[in-house]
Write a structure and sequence with these properties.
Layout: H1 16-23, H2 27-37, E1 44-48, H3 54-62, E2 67-72, H4 75-87, E3 94-98, H5 101-106, E4 119-121
Parallel strand pairs: 1-2, 1-4, 2-3
Helix pairs in contact: 2-3
Length: about 140
């Protein structure tokens, strides 16, 4: 039996994209709105809880020259996202890092992702945090 990591709604990662659209019928609309809220001048974007990479892909489709740094707790979600981003041709513009982003916020020196971002996005992940964290977007 596979471990189910926090945020994994489905035991089989491949079921997530279809299943989340059944649970949240306006999922694609939500992601599109988030992507449209990213300032057009953003070159370096942090995504907290990238899941299967759907939001990263929407952002890269809007800003193909941007760099997206994606954090996710689940190695399976990260691999799924990496495969999707690679298939779309954006592998040079996306970096996935396995991390609890609460831990990253408290101990940024433990992670090699830098500290300056033009924008920070999250779709369905920050509600998993148990404590308040402070993330400064410069």
């Amino acid at each position: 039996m596979q471990n189910v990591f926090p945020g994994e709604v489905f035991a089989n990662t491949a079921d997530f994209d279809t299943g989340i659209r059944q649970l949240l019928p306006r999922y694609d609309e939500m992601l599109e709105v988030i992507a449209r809220c990213v300032p057009s001048t953003s070159q370096r974007i942090l995504e907290l809880g990238c899941g299967t990479g759907e939001l990263s892909l929407k952002i890269l489709n809007r800003f193909p020259d941007a760099q997206v740094v994606a954090l996710d707790y689940s190695p399976r979600m990260l691999q799924f996202a990496q495969d999707k981003i690679t298939a779309a041709g954006y592998q040079q513009h996306w970096t996935g890092t396995q991390a609890d982003f609460g831990d990253w916020a408290d101990n940024p020196e433990k992670f090699d992702i830098g500290s300056e971002f033009d924008a920070c996005v999250s779709s369905l992940a920050i509600h998993h945090l148990q404590d308040e964290i402070e993330i400064k977007v410069i």
